Each structure stands twice: as structure tokens, then as C-alpha cells.
């Protein structure tokens, strides 16, 4: 802790108040960089899903009792023999993983561990700069640190419960909220640094009036993201991604060859709820953006909020097509996992942007018509 404090003092000396609003010396670049790291961590998690390697390290925080990823098949089998109390791999006794599969899980954990230091530095630095950036920014930075700790705990939970569908969905949602928190810190800092973004030029009263709508959009996108993680589950007895069959049109737009299939199978029910929900949310985003745009023009407000919702809607509709392609282009050899990763990236991006939009609107005081901060 003393070392981190010395770092914050050093950095604070380099960044004077006069240089905070311009160039590469802006303190706001730290949370933006952390957003990029968060994106890499989420991408690494998606790669684990593609490789079906979520159980390749059966213990936590170690991996087969070691701190490395170089674990031979013999060493894996020996670990299982030495740890009979461990929960058996869902693929059955005797299943082993190759080096790439183990590495994908190992490096994912490593990245989470490495990001802990800059996250701590971020919180301490924002505490020192609270007279400049305010208590909100400091509190958001502290929240980001707390969420990282919670996310690591949820990651351990996925190991304990062998990547059950609900743990995977919770892990992804936590990662999305954590990333959104860091992005919100960046936006809050940029506002104080005097950036002239359209959202901050919009009156607080108008943004407050639209907030119920933007809050609903953010919540709906996050819920559908969780359902998507549930659909992608490959736990024994689940295989929800295969529940509606594959190909066109039996797998999509139909499900088992029917537009309204029987939902007596849990996988079919989850698939249909996800598909129907995705269509409904997409339609609401398009209609909502149009209404916000009309209201903005009538009130003489910038179109920034409508444009942001439009962007979320565009991401969402593109992701609908990617999700459809994942089913349509599947064959007897398996699913196109590259599309699965793209589906994840677009879904998380849409959720992060949707959350950020409604949180940005809170940076403008509801009683101020000039777009000034509280």
C-alpha cells in the first residue's frame, strides 16, 4: 500500500491542473485504458467458451495445483487421483485438456490479477484528485475496485459449480457492469475536463424526462445478455444452443421446424424467450430512438441522446443477424464458434453502451437547462 501511495504522489506531481484537460497527460486516460483491458479480459473469457475450456483448471486460484498452464495429461490425471473430493469434470472421469485449453483459462485469470494494481492505483489517485474531479469520480473509482473483487469471486464460483449456466451468466453480467463503471468514470472526468460533447450540452430537464426510457433500455439489454449466456451453456443436460436444431429454416427462424414450437423442453423455452426478447428489445430501441429524436427536435435539444440510442439499436440488430448466422451456418461438425465470439462482443458492447448512455445523462443536473454539472 505504501508503494502505491508513493506512485500516486509521483503521478500527481507530473499531472498539473493545467495539463489535465489536454493531450496524453489527461488523468481520464487511466480509466479509458482500464476499459480497454476489461475488453481484453471479456474477449479472453469468450475464447474460453469457444474452446469449451471452462473446466480446464478445476481448482482456484491454482490450476491443477500449480501456478502454470503447462500441465501434462499424466499430471492432470494424477491431480484427480490425489483430490478425490474435487467435483468431477462434467465430461466424465479421465477427461484431459490440451495446453491451449488450459492456457486460455490460465491467462484469463492472470489478466484479472494483473489489472488489480492499476485498479487500486486508479482509486487512490482519484481520492487524491477529489478536489479537482469531485467525490463522484472518486466513488466510482472505488466502486470499480470493489466490483473487480466481486468479479474474481464470481469467477471462483464458476469453477466451484463447474461452469453451470447461471454462474456463466452472472460472470458475464458482472464483467459488463464493471466495464460500464470504468467507462462512466471516464465520461465523468471528461465532463469536468470541459469536453464539448452533445450529451453534456443537452438540458438536464430533458435528459431527466427521458431517463425512465433509457434506464429500461439498459436493463433490457443486460437481461437479454444474461439469457444469451444461458443459451450458450453446454453443461450436461443443457446444450441449450442446440435445442432448436440447426440450419435454415428449421433451426432459424423456426425452432425444430416450427415458428411456435412446443416448449416442454427447457432448452427450447430458453431459446424462444431469448429470441422473442431480442426481437422485442430491438423494436423498442428503434421506436424509442425515433421518439427521443422527435422530442429533441421539438424541444430544440441536441440529437446526442437519440443518436446514442440509435447506435445501441444498430449494434443490437447487427447482433440479431450474427446470432441467426450462428444457427444457420452450423452443421454436423459443429457451430461456427467465430460467430459465437462476435455475438458475445456485440452483445457486451451494446450493453455497455446502453448502460453508459443512461449513466451519462445523470452527469447533467436535472434542474439545469444549460447542461452544466451539479
DSSP strand content: under 5%
- Inertia-based shape: flat
| Domain count | 2
Give unreliable regions as ranges: 9-19, 370-374
What's the pLDDT, averaged over the residues? 88
Task: Describe the fold and architecture.
This protein has 2 domains: 1-195, no CATH class; 198-374, no CATH class. It is 67% helix and 0% strand. It is built from 12 helices and no strands. Helix 9 (204-231) packs antiparallel against helix 10 (266-299), helix 9 (204-231) runs antiparallel to helix 12 and helix 11 packs antiparallel against helix 12 (337-360). The two termini are 33 Å apart. The relative contact order is 0.11.
Produce a short descriptive summary.
With about 375 residues, this protein is an all-alpha fold.
Write the layout of secondary structure elements.
Blueprint: H1 2-14, H2 29-51, H3 73-82, H4 99-114, H5 116-128, H6 130-160, H7 165-192, H8 198-201, H9 204-231, H10 266-299, H11 304-328, H12 337-360
Helix pairs in contact: 1-5, 2-4, 2-7, 2-12, 5-6, 6-7, 7-9, 7-12, 9-10, 9-12, 10-11, 11-12
